[in-house]
Write a structure and sequence with these properties.
The complex is a heterodimer of chains A (129) and B (213).
Chain A: H1 23-49, H2 58-77, H3 87-117, H4 121-128
Chain B: H1 2-6, H2 29-58, H3 68-71, H4 74-99, H5 103-133, H6 142-175, H7 179-209
Helix pairs in contact in B: 2-6, 2-7, 4-5, 4-7, 5-6, 6-7
The chains are: A mainly alpha (129), B mainly alpha (213).
Chain lengths: 129, 213
């Protein structure tokens, strides 16, 4: 076991906590995160108001940019990584994301079908009177 | 808790990652507290997802009232976004300062975070007051109801965060960097970063997608 990597005796990491790093490295991590997040935000605002790209692609682009920025926040600010000492945090996050996608995706899906199957509003109004 | 302590050598390296951990024992209080708070934050995000779902369904139901494109001002939203992003960064700086027990940079980072948070809240409050004054309050249409409840709920969270931030500054002033104060500080940093993540969803979905003509 001589070639085992050295790991300090505390093993799990609390969410938001980093592995052992110097102060300079930690600050650098936040700076990188801030720059990436600012770039992604600027791109989002630029894409939303531009005529340069194919218009129907804009909503998809905005959603992809938003998810990318959330990922940047999770990694650089909340320090949720895929390391072995972060397993519990990632599993909780994965379950949370599952519920979020079920709620949002399921609602949008069902409600769009209900809208599609409902007669127009003025027709309903006429039926009631 | 005792389960972790009872893990024998055979299970010390279940994923064969080459790192053998020798009987770690129960997790420290710092890890348990932060993990519990992380689970709370995830459930808070699930609650927000319900508001997002309601907004996604109702964003077109304007009932003859204004649509998103008519009432949203991109410039204000951009300022709010930059404020919250920078405040997330300074909050990170403050938590590093707390870890190395540096009072000056801790107070400085927290104060900047507080100012940026308050600027965010003022801009948002003025936007809401302006909409209500023009007769576009939450009761005008289903779209406005969902808009006010989603963005207002986030604003309430930021307000609570600012109060919590001031409490943390006062506790460090009165009690110093004690272990329990540092645990609270860690939870606050998690809370503040999570609010920023939710704001990414808000400005993308509500203001940019919902503001498209």
């Amino acid at each position: 076991m001589s070639d085992q990597t050295h790991i300090p005796t505390g093993h799990d990491l609390a969410p938001g906590e980093e592995e052992q790093h110097s102060v300079g490295e930690r600050i650098l991590g936040y700076v990188v995160g801030l720059v990436l997040a600012l770039l992604l935000t600027a791109t989002s605002f630029f894409i939303a108001g531009t005529d340069l790209v194919w218009q129907p692609s804009i909503p998809v682009a905005l959603i992809v940019l938003a998810i990318a920025q959330m990922g940047v926040h999770l990694v650089f600010f909340l320090h949720i990584t895929t390391g072995p000492d972060n397993t519990n945090n990632v599993l909780a996050l994965a379950f949370g994301l599952l519920v979020v996608f079920l709620v949002v995706g399921g609602t949008v899906w069902i409600m769009s079908h209900l809208n599609g199957n409902m007669p127009p509003m003025d027709q309903i109004m006429r039926m009631r009177t | 808790m005792s389960m972790t302590a009872a893990v024998g050598h055979a299970h010390a390296d279940p994923h064969h990652i080459g790192v053998v951990i020798e009987h770690p024992g129960p997790a420290s209080k710092r890890i348990v507290t932060a993990y519990g708070f992380w689970v709370f934050l995830l459930s808070d995000i699930v609650m927000f997802s319900c508001f997002f779902a309601a907004y996604a369904v109702l964003s077109g139901q304007t009932a003859g009232g204004p649509s998103g494109a008519e009432i949203f001002e991109q410039r204000n939203v951009a300022i709010e976004t930059v404020c919250l992003l920078l405040s997330s960064f300074t909050c990170g700086m403050a938590s590093i300062a707390a870890d190395v027990r540096n009072r000056f940079w801790f107070y400085f980072g927290m104060a900047v975070t507080c100012v940026l948070g308050v600027i965010f809240l003022v801009i948002e409050f003025r936007e809401f007051a302006d909409l209500v004054a023009r007769g576009y309050g939450p009761s005008r249409s289903a779209f406005l109801t969902s808009f006010f409840s989603l963005v207002g709920c986030h604003g309430l969270h930021v307000s609570a965060g600012v109060l919590w931030l001031l409490t943390m500054m006062a506790q460090v002033f009165a009690k110093g960097f004690r272990a329990d104060v540092l645990r609270r500080m860690m939870c606050f940093a998690l809370f503040w970063h999570a609010l920023d993540i939710i704001w990414v969803g808000v400005f993308s979905v509500v203001y940019l997608l919902g503001g498209a003509p």
